[in-house]
Amino acid sequence: MRTFLLLALTFVAVNGSQPDLRKTLLKDIIVFVNQTLHNHSEKNLKQFVRDIFQSVRCSDEALCQAAKVLNGVHLNTDPNNMIYRNLFTYADLTVHRNCSVTASEEHPVKDFLKKIKDCCQLLYSKPVSRPKRVK
């Protein structure tokens, strides 16, 4: 009986880990964006970046593009740039690592971060679809 329970728990942990990791990353991105918006000087938040949310809807690919946009942005109170790192990891999990940024319109970082937060909240609220099992 113990062996069966251990096997069942292992199966649940292995098969349920990726969707849970995606939700955790989305939640972390929301937290880091909130921290960045409250702890940064206006000078850093007034930098201009390409706003990919003008041309694409909120999706996994949009977050990949957001990671590429934030790659070159320096935010003082975020020395490891955790927003970028988590966005990049999320894109890697969703198989959108090789996305390209085609947006040309620019907006302040502050507005862009708010759009990232809104997008993460939207994706977080959606149920995670699990891959179908192959027989």
What does this molecule look like?
One of its GO terms (molecular function) is growth factor activity. By secondary structure, the protein is mainly alpha-helical. The chain has a single domain, classed as Up-down Bundle (Growth Hormone, Chain: A). Helix content is 61%, strand content 4%. Strands 1-2 form a two-stranded antiparallel sheet. Helix 1 crosses helix 4 (82-93) and helix 1 (2-39) packs antiparallel against helix 5 (109-125).
Total number of domains: 1
Q: Tell me which oligomeric state these chains represent.
A: single chain
| Terminal CA distance | 26 Å
Structural class: mainly alpha
Order of helical and strand elements: HHEHHEH
Helical content stands at 55-70%
Question: What is the CATH topology?
Answer: Growth Hormone, Chain: A
- The CATH architecture can be given as Up-down Bundle
Top keywords for this entry?
globular; 135 residues; single chain; 61% helix; B-cell activation; IL-4; 4% strand; Growth Hormone, Chain: A
Topology of this protein?
Layout: H1 2-39, H2 42-45, E1 48-50, H3 60-70, H4 82-93, E2 106-108, H5 109-125
Antiparallel strand pairs: 1-2
Helix pairs in contact: 1-4, 1-5, 3-4
InterPro entries: 4_helix_cytokine-like_core, IL-4, IL-4/IL-13
GO molecular function: growth factor activity; interleukin-4 receptor binding
Protein name: Interleukin-4
In a nutshell, what does this entry contain?
The protein has 135 residues and is mainly alpha-helical.
